[in-house]
Amino acid sequence: MKLRANTVKLSTVNSKLDKVFATGNVVVDSPASGTATGDNGIYSVVPRTVVMTGNVVLKKGKDVLRGSQLTVNLVTGQATLGGGVKGQTGSPNTGRVQGVFTPNSN
User: Fold this and answer.
1) Residues 75-100: pLDDT tens digits?
2) For labeling, which of 18, 26, 29, 62 is most exposed (least CB within 10 Å)?
3) 2-100: which CATH number, 2.60.450.10, 3.40.50.300, 2.40.30.10, 2.60.40.640?
C-alpha cells in the first residue's frame, strides 16, 4: 500500500506506530482494493484499515465510485463506501453513493 498527502502525522503507542493521519489531497494505492482519493485519511496499523473522508473517489480498473466516507480493509481488500449524512452541506455526494461500472468484454 502507498499513501501520500499534503500533510501526514504519525501517532505511536509504546514507541510503535499506531496510526497515520493524512490531510489534503490524500491518495491511497492498494493492489487489492484500487486507488482511493479524498480530503482526509486515517490508516490504523494493527487492524490494517484505512478510513477516508471528504469527496472520496475509489477507482479499480475502469470502475469508479464516489461517496463521503470509505473504509478499506487492506487484509481482505473489502471496501465499504458511504454517502454521508443526508442534508449535510458542503458535499456534492450528500446522502448518496455514485458508481460507474464497466462490464468486462469477456
Assistant:
1) 888 889 998 765 555 545 467 899 99
2) 62
3) 2.60.450.10
